[in-house]
Recover the amino acids of this structure.
């Protein structure tokens, strides 16, 4: 019996011949992210698969590119999952939103935007989900640099001073030193990469 | 937790003799503290999974009512004790400090579980506060992940010991010029501003954790992406193979 994914690949090839697909492990990678809504709608409507439930939207960081991974199930036929991948360059991470087709994509796309910075074009409410408004950066990207929470910075010093809180001199000096060098207090990176 | 027990200066035999005649000889401090420690009202406030152990401690099996602390108040204005039961995320920290400020004096804080004490397993996370003691003073630290209800009761008894050791004349909340309004941190572009309140907490000069793990904390940032395209397909193990 052929794999579910192979069946889908064959059917997609017949139904949407201009969509380029590639197998990556046990998933299908769409070469062009713009094909995603078409493929999703086709799979949702095709009587053979009826993939009517989008279980998860996940972001992933592959250093030079970002990926959005979709897991589709069929509630009607009790089949699944089918894993779809879409890969976009890191400097221009735009993927069409799946919210018009699957409503369950709404919060999950917001989460992927929040943590990986993938922009879902056509999302009805493209705000951050977990982090607050005004937060800078995307914390689950591999190049995200976390702040060192044990070292006060210039912003902390002015904030504390404006509320009349006594600050030890060494902390003040450290903050001034960082500000003069134009640096932020960051968590150190490991000497050797973890692989 | 350092405290000195309140000891009476009255002779014990005299006291026992008076008690047998129906006369009670006591000090105002003792009476006052007895009343306070026997009706510690915690705030009804749970943050994470430790809250369920707190709920279990309030239920019939462990029965926190034996210690007079069964009235979980839904308002900080009526509460004496704040049990920080669970992970304090950076997004939640301003609200926790605000609630503590709204509690009337005398007020106490008990941190329950590893997360509330230090960040616990999430200490390297971008979103978790490394211990609520960065912003508000804590009376009892209760380690565990999560602490069992018995441990919470033990923590409450430790707090009762501390309450019993306090004196009205020396208690800080009756002194003039008491500064107990703690500034509420704000959500900044990279985390909380300020990162801690130096009047309440300061980083240790010696960091045993950093010493143990080396000069840097390994925060799991891989510098090489896995190659999915050329990854060998995982073959299912043959039946019977070990």
């Amino acid at each position: 019996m052929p794999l579910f994914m192979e069946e889908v690949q064959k059917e997609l090839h017949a139904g949407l011949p201009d969509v380029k697909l590639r197998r990556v492990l046990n998933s299908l990678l769409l070469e062009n992210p713009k094909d995603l809504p078409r493929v999703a709608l086709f799979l949702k409507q095709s009587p053979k698969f009826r993939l009517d439930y989008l279980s998860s939207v996940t972001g992933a960081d592959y250093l030079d590119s970002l990926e959005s991974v979709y897991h589709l199930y069929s509630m009607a036929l009790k089949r699944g999952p089918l894993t779809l991948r879409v890969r976009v360059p890191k400097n221009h991470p735009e993927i069409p939103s799946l919210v018009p087709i699957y409503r369950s994509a709404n919060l999950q796309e917001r989460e992927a935007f929040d943590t990986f910075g993938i922009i879902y074009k056509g999302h009805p409410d493209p705000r951050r989900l977990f982090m607050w408004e005004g937060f800078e950066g995307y914390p689950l990207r591999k190049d995200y640099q976390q702040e060192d929470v044990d070292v006060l910075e210039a912003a902390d010093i002015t904030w504390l001073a404006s509320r009349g809180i006594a600050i030890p001199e060494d902390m003040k000096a450290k903050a001034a030193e960082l500000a003069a060098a134009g640096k932020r207090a960051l968590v150190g990176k490991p000497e050797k990469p973890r692989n | 937790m350092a405290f000195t027990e309140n000891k009476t200066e009255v002779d014990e035999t005299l006291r026992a003799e008076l008690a047998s005649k129906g006369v009670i000889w006591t000090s105002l401090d003792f009476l006052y503290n007895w009343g306070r420690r026997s009706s510690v009202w915690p705030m009804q406030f749970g943050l994470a999974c430790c809250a369920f152990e707190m709920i279990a401690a309030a239920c019939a099996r462990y029965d926190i009512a034996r210690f007079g602390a069964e009235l979980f108040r839904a308002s900080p204005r009526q509460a004496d004790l704040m049990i920080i039961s669970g992970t304090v995320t950076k997004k939640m920290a301003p609200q926790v400090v605000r609630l503590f400020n709204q509690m009337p004096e005398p007020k106490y804080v008990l941190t329950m579980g590893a997360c509330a004490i230090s960040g616990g397993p999430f200490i390297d996370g971008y979103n978790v506060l490394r211990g609520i003691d960065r912003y508000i003073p804590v009376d009892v630290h209760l380690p565990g992940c999560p602490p069992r209800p018995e441990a919470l009761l033990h923590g409450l008894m430790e707090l009762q010991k501390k309450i019993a050791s306090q004196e009205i004349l020396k208690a800080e909340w009756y002194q003039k010029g008491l500064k107990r309004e703690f500034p509420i941190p704000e959500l900044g572009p990279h985390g909380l501003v300020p990162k801690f309140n130096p009047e309440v907490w300061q980083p240790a000069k010696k960091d045993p954790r950093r010493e143990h793990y080396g000069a840097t904390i390994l925060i799991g940032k891989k510098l090489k992406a896995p190659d999915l395209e050329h990854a060998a397909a995982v073959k299912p193990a043959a039946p019977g193979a070990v």
Notes: Chain B touches chain A through 38 residues (CB under 8 Å). The mean pLDDT of chain B is 85.
